[in-house]
Amino acid sequence: MRLKSIKLAGFKSFVDPTTVNFSSNMSSVVGPNGCGKSNIIDAVRWVMGESSAKTLRGESMVDVIFNGTTHRQPVGQASIELLFDNSDGKIVGEYAAYTDISVRRQVDRDDGSQYYLNGSKCRRRDITDLFLGTGLGPRSYAIIEQGMISRLIESRPEDLRVFIEEAAGISKYKERRRETESRMRRTLENLERLTDLREELDRNLKHLQRQAQAAEKYAGLKAEEREVKAQLLALQWREYHGDTQVAKAQIDELAVRREAERAELERTSAHIERLRVELTDATDHFNDVQARYYTVGGEVTRVEQALRYEQEKRAGIEQELDNTRGSLAEASGHLSADRERLTMWREELVVLDPELQRQRAIADAAGQHLAAAEQAMNEWQSRWDDFNQQAAVPRQETEVQQSRIVYLEQVLRRLHERIQRLESDRNELGESSNLDRVEELEATIGGVDARVIDGESAIKQVSGSIVAQREHIERLRSHQDDHRSRLQQMKGQQASLEALQTAAADAGETEVLDAWLTEHSIQHCGAVFERLSVQEGWAATVEQVLGKLLTARCIDDVDQLVAQSFAEAPAGACVVGASEDTLATDNSLAAVVTGPTVLRQWLSGIFRANDLAKALVLLPTLGPDASVITPSGEWIGRGWARTRTKADASMGVIERREMLAQLTGDIAACEQQLHATEQELQQACDERLRLEETLDTAQAALKQAVREQADFSAELKTQMGAIAQDRQRRGQLEADLDESRQQFESEQAALIQARAQLADAINKMESDGLVREQLLAERDALREAFQSAREQAREARDEAHRSDVRAQNVNTQIETVASTIVRLEQQVTQLESRRRELNLLIPDSTEPDQALKEQLETLLSQRVEAEAALTDARQTASDKEHGLREQEQGKMAVENRLQLLHSDIEAQNIKQTERHIRTETLEAQLQELNKTVQVVVAALPEHASEPEWQVNVERLTAKITRLGPINLAAIDECARAAERKHYLDVQNDDLESALKTLENAIRKIDKETRARFQETFDQVNAGFSDLFPKVFGGGTASLELTGNDLLDTGVAIMARPPGKKNTTIHLLSGGEKAMTAIALVFSIFQLNPAPFCMLDEVDAPLDDANVGRFARMVKEMSDKVQFIFITHNKISMEMADQLMGVTMHEPGVSRLVTVDIKQAAQLAAS
């Protein structure tokens, strides 16, 4: 596998579509700094799936798109395509059959990145999976850019391990392990959820089982209850049915009585109608008399109201005049009294003003005396505060010393207890009795060490067998892959040939012809080419001659077909007779053909010649219709000639048929070989599994021995530590005792000092007590003087306030009375004016109502006459009404009796209807219970009674009620829950089995990874040790593992250049680091050569001598690895077979110029 070309478009500085072809394994990219050489390496890294813009020297992924210059506009898309030659089949899987593999990545400014594999859109993961194990990738050791050498050397051991893993091809195992761990996590999560579901379902199932038992019991009681209820309903039906017959006779009797009452009611109604007519006439006469009476009465009422109004009017005026006179006298009295009070208030105010001034002067003097007393009190308070501050010092000192004495006494007590405890521990501590156990453990550890050595020897032996078996398996797998690749290639070729054969067989009008033959019930024997057999070397010639006749259909009787219906055949129809013979010819084309007779007869006129010269010699000797043809396709006759066309020159149907037959046999043989290889591979794998199981057993035994060794060693260490700890404990106790005694003496001295300071402070507090008593006595005297002054000031202030309030009240009274006097004067004036107006309204006549009284007497006599007539008319109407009322009461009595009868009948009918409805209801209820009335009644016991059966029903109902709420669906739910529980149990077992399978898979992956890593590490280390002296001209170097676990151990580089001590690579110079890194990378290439290697100015830190050695090493390895290197060094350029110059003639735009060194040398030589 090698890189054939790179196609760049819109990528960084390569804005124009550019194709970089790599025709040799030594291609050098040269050019000035900044012209875009490194962009080629960035393009390869990017198309292989690099997702970090920083690694590509950008801030975001769109920075790889050409961003424009001063003369060019930015583009919207960048595209890179790598074309690989896979003719050696290094790429396995579904793309193993492809000789060319195209990988393309495209990015738009708005749409993101897209990947294409052989023109088909794919995922980034598909690209990375394609190159897994090949040494290629966005960050593999096959692409070494500027500064990567120093980063490679200075990287951590864990990062350096990645290159060994890529060389070992275990990156795919790590990916599988990550996927397996992810599946394990998901499986564990599913298992946890399933466990929760099972536990919840188990609890629900127990609950449902209890509910199902209750439901079954409920169903039994319910069935018994239905039976007893049916019998009770039948008893009730029988009782209601008997009552219905009795009630029917009663209803008939009531109907007869109702008819008699109806006849009586009709007679009474006729008499009432006659009385009503007479009453109407009497009522009309009464109404006329009453109308005259009311008219006279109205006139009387009108005259009486007019007379009453005049009288009330005069009384009102006289009453108002009396009121006005009273109000006037009252207002005059109030006015005189208010004037007297106003005079009195003014005199009192003159007396109050001097007293008010005197009270205010007394209050001011009392306030000054109070201020002086308050000042004296404040001065005393200041002296008291100063004294308290001075007196607080000895008091605080006393409290401090008391607390200190208590603390020191507690410390001394604890120290005394600690000294006693330490002395007791020292006395109890004796010599350790662990020496015997130490000797016993040393003897046991010796025996376990021997078991460990034996186990390691067995594991080493089995591991060697496993490595050999794995190599054998790898060889078998390689053979298996070869067989599969060859089988796939042959099947693909077979499919292509069959498709071409099918296409050739269906060409032209053959499909239409087949349909026409089928429609006319004509059987054909297939195409002509299927029945022809041609000698080797003449198949193409026969196809050239027969042409379209090869796809003609063979039938038994052509003449009959032509005679009957061939005129209706589709256009272009071609049929040939199917009969064959053994016609013998000497040199005609028919001699090399076996097939239908008609074709052989036609071919018998065409003769064969080995070349054109012999054909020209043979043609004159033949008949006029004969012709000659050569194997190469020259066909000549008398007056004409023809050569083979391009279509004739390609493989024909006859050759394809023969090749298909050969391919079928080859495929069968290849499948047999593949089956045998797979069987042998399965046997080898089984043997490897057996050895691995043996290894696991040996490792388990070794692990057990190592565990015992560690346990005994730990116990031995514990015993030795106990002995040392006892000795150390004794020394520590002695030191603690000395320290505690010293501290005890020191604390005792401090306690004595604290007690002395406490006594001094107490004496000082006693002297301060005398001063405090003097200050308190002075305070009491000042407080009494202050209280007296404050009392005098308050009394003076209150007296002045009362005088002030009295003066204000007098002023207020004066103002109020003055306003009242003004108002009363106005009121007296108004009352005088009203009294004069009322005097004018009183009439002068003594009898003002005489005319109205005379009119009233006349109307009263008329009303008496009308009233007598009205009484007579009323008596007549009353008599008539009384007679009518008696008849109506008789009618009402008849109607009441009729209504009672009707009500009785309706009540009986309603009861009868209720009985009927109740009977139907009972029948319906029995039908709901799937019972028939007659059957249940017939089955009732003779002694059956409704109360007894009612008690039975209530008893059963009580039993059902005691069962509580019943879930009738619990039985089905319990069955479904049990079924689901079984299903979940099966799922749980499957998940646990899957988890064990995944764990076994991880263990197998880890085993395979360890084995491959160890094997690869040893090989890379050996290659690194061999290449280092070649690169440096001497010295030694090696790789070392930094950990014990091969799954995550790091890799460190140890190097010793010629004439120097062995040291780590970090202490080497820049050139030595670069050469060491080159040696390491090339040792990896020797083990697992990547298809190509890209070097970006790797030789920059090297001198000419080291560049020469580097160039020669690259040249040697170019037989296996394709090198593409960027350099500025002439020595490196001279080693290249192809030079590609990158220029930037236009600022910001890179262009490529390619030169083949050999062709250039030939041109220079010529």
Helices, strands, pairings?
Blueprint: E1 2-9, E2 18-21, E3 26-30, H1 38-47, E4 77-85, E5 100-108, E6 112-117, E7 120-122, H2 124-130, E8 143-144, H3 148-154, H4 157-168, H5 171-428, H6 435-505, H7 510-519, E9 524-527, H8 528-531, E10 533-534, H9 539-546, E11 553-555, H10 558-564, E12 575-577, E13 593-594, H11 597-603, E14 606-608, H12 612-618, E15 627-629, E16 635-637, E17 640-642, H13 646-649, H14 653-841, H15 850-928, H16 933-939, H17 946-962, H18 970-1032, E18 1036-1041, E19 1051-1056, E20 1063-1064, H19 1070-1087, E21 1092-1096, H20 1104-1117, E22 1122-1126, H21 1130-1135, E23 1138-1146, E24 1149-1156, H22 1157-1165
Parallel strand pairs: 3-22, 3-23, 8-21, 11-12, 14-15, 21-22
Antiparallel strand pairs: 1-2, 1-4, 4-5, 5-6, 6-7, 9-11, 10-13, 15-16, 16-17, 18-19, 19-20, 23-24
Helix pairs in contact: 3-19, 4-18, 5-14, 5-15, 5-16, 5-17, 5-18, 6-14, 18-19
Strand order within the widest beta sheet:
2-1-4-5-6-7
Biggest pleated-sheet summary: 6 strands, antiparallel
> What percent of residues are in strands?
5-15%
* Portion in helices: 55-70%
Number of helices: 22
